[in-house]
UniProtKB/TrEMBL annotation, chains A, B:
Annotated catalysed reactions: thiamine phosphate + ATP = thiamine diphosphate + ADP
Additional observations: Reaction mechanism of ThiL seems to utilize a direct, inline transfer of the gamma-phosphate of ATP to TMP rather than a phosphorylated enzyme intermediate.
UniProt-recorded name of the protein: Thiamine-monophosphate kinase
Database matches in CDD domains: ThiL
Binding site for Mg(2+) 1: 59-60, 137
Signal peptide, first to last residue: none
Gene symbol of the encoding locus: thiL
Role description: Catalyzes the ATP-dependent phosphorylation of thiamine-monophosphate (TMP) to form thiamine-pyrophosphate (TPP), the active form of vitamin B1.
Family: Belongs to the thiamine-monophosphate kinase family.
Binding site for Mg(2+) 5: 243
BP GO annotations: thiamine biosynthetic process; thiamine diphosphate biosynthetic process
A GO molecular-function descriptor: ATP binding
List of residues binding substrate: 67, 293, 345
Entry keyword ATP-binding: yes
Length: 352, 352
């Protein structure tokens, strides 16, 4: 019996559509059948109504060899991160995560002690973020480790913030700083290559604690959601920065039907990430735009709310929302306008 | 940098604990922090309260090479089945599934057309069972295909049926028939081996349609849940039969603190499965007890409700609930009592 999915006529490589193109292509024909389904595919999380209180659901899968390398990822950190990336999606809806389910597939090269390490990390994340582990699945895999987490959150209907609410004139805000997780990954990869070429050389990670922690043990911005509530601020649109600022800007602009003008000088980049980018011959703003895995929040606010964010710590105003026709533009420190592409890479074609 | 999880002192093989032992071992230290969390790990699904209406959540992961073999599993059927196995868990709580999320990890040997086939199966299941696809994740994998589905359902608090409600004297009921999915798998495996030994021999699956469909394209028993509602029947305990009758009986008995007396003559086995078991030199009752993947319902009812089930089609009374001290027993057609072990295998030690 031949393998059914190979050698078919009309074979289209999965990479031709890109991740978001593929998800859209596969899910666009799914209608909504239940009145309780408020929002399906296409935001940070799905929204389900329960008589006014709305349930928010998000899911993410981490695959060994794609999302993590056990050569430099402690299992405990991996468990922790697998929860964080999902909680981040719930916060990006301006909701509170309450429960998670965790499914783990692993080969027999993993011991019970290895599983305990993963769950110790999951336990820590549950403790810190106040969520309950309520279910899951543990199964074998022929090789490699796969972790799939689903997070369930809750918010009042009127508190939820979608990707689609940005309006021209709104201010663009970013929390924390961008690019550090990516630079941490570059350091880990470099040291791994050095180790592989000569196992007698011990990896030198000294002085890179901040960047490496941003990569291996990220946090989700619960503090920001709580600060919003305290300040009485409701962003007009919000998304978490998991794939890089450029990609998230495209999501906001597509779903809100707007454009954006991003100020390079307004994009927060940690000093360590700046130095490290230069050390790797990379442009720091490019790293911030396309690096990913920062799990910071990108959101837009009505300009009348500017006083509410002005003194919020760790929050930066980085540009403004423009009409859709103006497209997605970066105003560089040199004062030139560059187009921001969906792939996250800035093509340096100065605008006429 | 050595791989962190290998070569550690005190390495315990994952198989020593068994799947349920491992889940319990890893999740027992997770406390419940949110008032909305009614039931966490340990039933067919978790239960989350929303002001009286309760949300039910279940998740299952299917891994290539462990749960399915693409040598004989059409991708469309695989997509369908990946949804069904989760809906079955929701029905086993006496709840209605409403939404699903689907995460797929796949290597680049899969084409867009292959993904479309998987999603066509998911689409069909959503259509037939009236559920909404509301989210998910599509990602690469270094090799192989992994599908993780989370199903979300809803029920009024007083309608939910847990594994823990069985009481001595209750009647034990089984829907449909058992063992057919397992026999279908045996046929598919046999024909695959024949094909592998000589690719010129075409697989001969003729006459085995029923068994093969039970394996490749199972259904979930929504019809039974609806029949219960119509008859005003509330089972005292319920579970879906995914790992084999023996394993599910152990779950019910452990969580309800009871024993069970199962009548071999009351266990429904389809004629095709009977014949095929004998053809494979297997005892049909052993196949029913340990085969798995039937996605039928096992439930217990108060004896005063017997009139409500007596004329329900496709439903069989197969024994009764006993005190915990009596253990789990099978009364064979020969009139002998055998112990039912957790692994599903009946050891033929006649009771004194």
């Amino acid at each position: 019996m031949p393998n059914t999915q190979e050698g078919q006529p009309g074979r289209t490589d999965v990479n031709t559509l890109g991740e978001f193109g593929l998800i859209h292509h596969l899910t666009k024909a799914f209608p909504i059948r239940n009145a309780s389904t408020i929002k399906g595919v296409g935001d940070d999380a799905a929204v389900i109504d329960n008589r006014g209180l709305q349930t928010v659901v998000s899911t993410d899968m981490l695959v060994e060899g794609i999302h993590f390398d056990l050569g430099y990822t402690p299992l405990r950190h991996l468990g922790y991160k697998s929860v964080i990336v999902n909680l981040s999606d719930i916060y990006a809806m301006n909701a509170q995560p309450r429960q998670i389910t965790v499914s783990v597939a692993l080969s027999n090269r993993f011991s019970v002690e290895a599983m305990e390490e993963i769950y110790a990390g999951i336990h820590k994340a549950c403790e810190i973020y106040g969520v309950d582990l309520v279910g899951g699945d543990t199964t074998s895999s022929p090789r490699g480790l796969v972790i799939s987490v689903t997070a369930i959150g809750q918010a009042k209907k009127e508190q939820l913030v979608y990707r689609s609410g940005a309006r021209p004139g709104d201010l663009l805000c970013i929390t924390g700083n961008l690019g550090a997780a990516y630079m941490g990954l570059q350091i880990l990869e470099r040291e791994k290559q050095i180790y592989l070429s000569d196992p007698n050389i011990q990896p030198n990670l000294e002085g890179h604690d901040y960047l490496i922690e941003r990569q291996l043990k990220p946090e989700a911005r619960r503090d920001m959601i709580e600060a919003f509530a305290k300040a009485g601020l409701l962003p007009t649109a919000m998304i978490d920065i998991s794939d890089g600022l450029a990609s998230e800007l495209h999501h906001i602009c597509q779903q809100s039907g707007v454009g954006v003008l991003l100020e390079e000088s307004g994009v927060p980049i940690h000093q360590d990430a700046q130095f490290q980018a230069i050390d790797f011959n990379l442009d720091p703003i490019t790293v911030a735009l396309s690096g990913g895995e920062d799990y910071e929040l990108l959101f837009t606010i009505d300009p009348k709310d500017v006083d509410k964010v002005k003194y919020m710590p760790d929050l930066y105003i980085a540009g403004e929302v423009t009409p859709a026709d103006d497209g997605l533009k970066l105003n560089s420190k040199g004062g030139k306008l560059h187009e921001i592409t969906a792939q996250g890479w800035v093509h340096f074609k100065p605008n006429a």
